Amino acid sequence: MSVEVERKFLCSADTLKTLEEIGAVCVGQRQFLDQYFDTPKFDLTLKDMWLRNRKGCWELKCPTPVDRTEETSGEQSKAAALCTRYKEITNLPEIQTRVREVVKDVCERRETSSSQEDEESWLSKINLVCFAAFTTVRRSFTLEEEGVQIDLDQADFGYHVGEIEVLVPEGGDVQSALEKIERTARKLGELKRVEGKMNVYLKRNHPEHYAKLLSEHVL
Ligand SMILES: Cc1ncc(C[n+]2csc(CCOP(=O)(O)OP(=O)(O)OP(=O)(O)O)c2C)c(N)n1
């Protein structure tokens, strides 16, 4: 399990040039479809848990506690507030356990005892349905001196966003990741906070749920 520390930024016409100027190296372009799942009542996302299938692989992003002692100055805490950090779980049995913990009432009603379950059966037993699906074209860059990855994403619903990202192994140094991201953002001349793809997707496709996530301070 690792923790993804990430800061999103607005891509402009100059972003590619700036990336080149600061020495970022393009490491490729790929395209993927993300399908996000939740119960019809959105039990997972209301707990800030994001279950998705990307290219046949399951991933669950869960909140991870923020250790405020990591931040020793006001500047550091401002920089940290611009970043998100989520635990990334990719092991399917562990994902299933975590998801069941949240939606256990639903599970108890629907589940039958079966040790071998295929993909559709675990989803339908826990009453999970796809609430968002979109394709992203992603160009990825690395900035070796900082050890960060920079992704430029173009979603098929007409939204562009950049991300500066560091994957921290569990128990690793989150503060150092925040500092690397902050330095990279400064090099990019990028200090503003922007919305992620999911925020924009939900606003357009599930406005009531989006409003609820805002009012519950999930987004
Ligand atoms: C700015 C911001 N972004 C996401 C969230 C929560 N959230 C909403 S959807 C969501 C899941 C998707 O996360 P994100 O990193 O935005 O997607 P993507 O860049 O495609 O995944 P990657 O390839 O990096 O793994 C999260 C964590 C938040 N609270 N604030």
TrEMBL record:
Residues 2-212 form the CYTH domain. It is found in: Cytoplasm. Gene3D superfamilies: Hypothetical Protein Pfu-838710-001. PROSITE patterns: CYTH. The keyword Protease does not apply. GO terms for cellular component: cytoplasm. Its cofactor is Mg(2+). It catalyses: thiamine triphosphate + H2O = thiamine diphosphate + phosphate + H(+). The keyword Acetylation applies. Keywords: Acetylation, Cytoplasm, Hydrolase, Magnesium, Metal-binding. One of its GO terms (molecular function) is magnesium ion binding. SMART domains: CYTH (SM01118). Hydrolase highly specific for thiamine triphosphate (ThTP). This is Thiamine-triphosphatase. It comes from Dicentrarchus labrax.
